[in-house]
Amino acid sequence: MDHPTTAFENGNSHHTEHSDSNVLDVYPLNCYYFDSKESVPLRNETVADRVLRMKSNYEAYGMRKCVAAVLVVELFKHPHLLLLQVQNSIYKLPGGCLRPGESDIDCLKRKLSSKLSAGEDGHGPEWEVGEFLGMWWKPDFEALLYPYLPPNIKRPKECTKLFLIKLPASQKFTVPRNFRLLAVPLSQIHENEETYGTIISGVPQLLSKFSINFVEP
């Protein structure tokens, strides 16, 4: 597990139950365990090849539907977002594309199990999918994303939905060896689109409606 800081101070607060759905319980990073598993194959394609693939898939299946997970942990009394890093440069939220006929929630659980646990094809820990946070649209095949669907766009090419994942007090994360799992502070991500991209850099604002409760087990 990689993260920008190297130590953690334990506090003495205790877990309390909340009836308010806008309270997000967040547990310390050192409550979790980290392991690795066999690397997963990655596409080695040019931008032009990727666009051709997306166009072909669009003609066959229609709009590309994706889901992504927002997982928050605590470090130094500050909320950190768990991100996957590919090839030491590209940051991603855990998630991926829906299969034909698959629901958002089923896809998200399947992708979380394949990317963050030893289970495959959804057979892993029981992920608790929480609140729907927002969605982004891709009007065309280029990389430009909008947090709304422009009114002049009748045939969008991609839609990505974000969901909050409620992590338990302890869990083991098992990540493919060609990925790195990073805990990045929200203050570093906020409006840092150049480094983290449109969707990730917008996550801190999406989380601003929650009252974050740091829990010390």
From TrEMBL:
Q: Which SUPFAM superfamilies match?
A: Nudix
Assigned keywords, A-Z: mRNA processing, Nucleus, RNA-binding
RNA-binding among keywords = yes
| Cited InterPro entries | Cleav_polyA_spec_factor_su5, NUDIX_hydrolase-like_dom_sf
**Signal peptide coordinates:** none
Q: Which GO terms describe its biological process?
A: mRNA 3'-end processing
Q: List, in alphabetical order, the Gene Ontology terms for molecular function in this entry.
A: mRNA binding
Task: State where the protein is found.
Answer: Nucleus
Which Pfam families is this protein grouped with?
NUDIX_2
Function (record text):
Component of the cleavage factor Im (CFIm) complex that plays a key role in pre-mRNA 3'-processing. Involved in association with CPSF6 or CPSF7 in pre-MRNA 3'-end poly(A) site cleavage and poly(A) addition. NUDT21/CPSF5 binds to cleavage and polyadenylation RNA substrates. The homodimer mediates simultaneous sequence-specific recognition of two 5'-UGUA-3' elements within the pre-mRNA. Binds to, but does not hydrolyze mono- and di-adenosine nucleotides. May have a role in mRNA export.
Q: What is said about its interaction partners and assembly? A: Homodimer. Component of the cleavage factor Im (CFIm) complex.
Spell out the protein name for this chain. Answer: Pre-mRNA cleavage factor Im 25 kDa subunit
